[in-house]
């Protein structure tokens, strides 16, 4: 499982011209589910995500978490995080989780995060347009194989 976390001042996601999710200060997170991922995998990354201290404190040090700044979450499913570009120029996505598993785990992540923070989301499998203002810019990648 992979999370690409961007610290944002605001972010939104639009499907067919309609805004389906929008947040102010917080994290916009792209979520990729790989084959073999489980709820336990998701729990590990959720725990890390919700505890990340990447907001500036009064001294300009990245020492504050999402809860410290009353932040929000915008969670977007993105299977292309599992693109394999080793051969040729057309990416392969065979390492991405099957859509049924990926959607189940994506909805689980949204549900778990919603218990702690205001959480918005995109629409799984839809053609989404994501807009954001990356604050910093500050981007962190969490990969379940590396934590």
Describe the fold and architecture.
The chain has helices at 39-51, 99-114; strands at residues 2-15, 18-23, 26-32, 53-56, 62-65, 72-77, 119-121, 128-143. It has 147 residues and is α/β, with parallel strands linked by helices. It has one domain (2-143): D-tyrosyl-trna(Tyr) Deacylase, Chain: A. The strands form two sheets. Strands 1, 2, 3, 6, 7 and 8 form a six-stranded mixed beta sheet that branches. The chain has a two-stranded antiparallel sheet with strand order 4-5. The N and C termini lie close together (11 Å).
* Spatial shape: globular
Kindly state the mean pLDDT as a whole number? 97
Written as H for each helix and E for each strand, in order along the chain, the element string is: EEEHEEEHEE
What name goes with the CATH superfamily? Answer: D-tyrosyl-tRNA(Tyr) deacylase
| Radius of gyration, whole Å | 15 Å
- CATH fold name: D-tyrosyl-trna(Tyr) Deacylase, Chain: A
CATH architecture grouping: 3-Layer(bba) Sandwich
Q: What is the helix fraction of residues, given as a range?
A: 10-25%
Uncertain residue ranges: none
Find the structural class using helix and strand composition: alpha/beta
Distance between the termini: 11 Å
Overall tally of domains: 1
Report the major sheet: 6 strands, mixed
Number of strands: 8
CATH top level label: Alpha Beta
Count of separate DSSP helical elements: 2
What percent of residues are in strands? Answer: 35-45%
